[in-house]
């Protein structure tokens, strides 16, 4: 009799070990110890949708702060003797061919390649030799757009090129992207909009929390409450787009010199 009881106990233990994973009691034990049940379906993870910048700006409006470095940006007072800019999207299209393969776009791509080739020949002079009185690049103030970089970055450079010699006026480029003058944040906003990265101008304070934290691979924005500028990786060389450090009121915003980034927050576009 004692032997039968022992055999029955052993058999019961074996049955308990072989209970299928779908057994409710087995699930309960697994949940208790925090283990994953073999074969059990995990509940789908809820997708986290990143907040859109416009939503963040709407939730936490940031007032424009007077640029503490405005005096170094050759501010223009009174009448501005400069034509108005095109929309950022139009400025980008004028310099960078779209990716489709229509005949017109192929011709535009060839024209762009010729532009890149001719600009590359003048690159050493344009990016190394600066205009006396500051760090602005020479030539017509624009920089070549390399063919081997992401199209978004090409468009940002094209947008920056389109307004690079516009005068600095506080608040310029904030009422509308189309303006005849741009302050520091208006300038950076215009270039980012040309790349499809912004839909409305932002202040320096707003750009402090724009995009993702830290330096980017292609574009890095440095912002604080009163001033903002950006670096763009142009075919392996970082060029600064900044209203401070220019050689005059109508000199280029593009500068090859690296400035101190102390006191600024580094941000970059997601993926760039």
Output the keywords.
6-stranded antiparallel sheet, 272 residues, alpha+beta, endopeptidase fold (from Nostoc punctiforme), 9 helices
**Strand order in the sheet with the most strands:** 1-6-2-3-4-5
C-alpha termini separation: 78 Å
In DSSP terms (H or I, runs of 4 or more residues), the helix count works out at: 9
CATH superfamily of the domain at 84-268: endopeptidase domain like (from Nostoc punctiforme)
Could you name the CATH class of the domain at 84-268?
Answer: Alpha Beta
Shape: globular
Task: Return the structural class.
Answer: alpha+beta
Q: Would you list the SSEs in sequence order as H and E?
A: HHHHHHHHHEEEEEE
Please name the CATH architecture of the domain at 84-268.
Alpha-Beta Complex
What is the overall pLDDT average?
Answer: 77
Low-confidence stretches: 1-11, 13-57
In the CATH hierarchy, the third-tier topology of the domain at 84-268 is known as endopeptidase fold (from Nostoc punctiforme)
The count of strands amounts to 6
Rg over alpha carbons: 29 Å
Strand content: 5-15%
Largest sheet: 6 strands, antiparallel
The level of helicity is 25-40%
Topology at a glance:
Elements: H1 2-17, H2 24-33, H3 53-59, H4 88-95, H5 103-121, H6 123-128, H7 151-162, H8 184-194, H9 204-207, E1 212-213, E2 219-223, E3 228-234, E4 237-241, E5 254-255, E6 265-268
Antiparallel strand pairs: 1-6, 2-3, 2-6, 3-4, 4-5
Helix pairs in contact: 4-7, 4-8, 7-8
């Amino acid at each position: 009799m004692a032997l039968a009881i022992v055999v029955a106990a052993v058999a019961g233990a074996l049955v308990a070990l072989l209970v299928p994973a779908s057994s409710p009691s087995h699930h309960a034990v697994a949940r208790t110890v925090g283990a994953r049940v073999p074969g059990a379906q995990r509940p789908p993870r809820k997708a986290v949708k990143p907040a859109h910048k416009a939503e963040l700006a709407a939730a936490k409006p940031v007032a424009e702060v007077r640029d503490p470095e405005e005096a170094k940006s050759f501010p223009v007072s009174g009448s501005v003797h400069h034509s108005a800019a095109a929309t950022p999207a139009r400025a980008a299209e004028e310099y960078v061919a779209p990716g489709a393969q229509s005949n017109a776009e192929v011709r535009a791509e060839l024209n762009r390649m010729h532009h890149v080739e001719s600009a590359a020949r003048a690159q050493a002079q344009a990016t190394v030799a600066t205009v006396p009185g500051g760090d602005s690049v020479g030539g017509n103030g624009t920089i070549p757009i390399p063919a081997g970089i992401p199209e978004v970055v090409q468009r940002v450079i094209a947008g920056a090129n389109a307004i690079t010699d516009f005068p600095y006026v506080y608040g310029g480029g904030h009422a509308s992207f189309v303006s005849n003058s741009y302050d520091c944040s208006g300038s950076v906003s215009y270039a980012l909009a040309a790349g499809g990265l912004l839909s409305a101008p932002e202040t320096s304070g707003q750009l402090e929390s724009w995009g993702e934290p830290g330096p980017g691979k292609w574009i890095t924005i440095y912002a604080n409450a009163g001033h903002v500028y950006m670096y763009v990786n142009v075919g392996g060389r970082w060029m600064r787009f900044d209203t401070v450090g220019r050689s005059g009121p109508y000199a280029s915003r593009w500068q090859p010199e690296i400035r101190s980034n102390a006191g600024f927050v580094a941000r970059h576009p997601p993926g760039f």
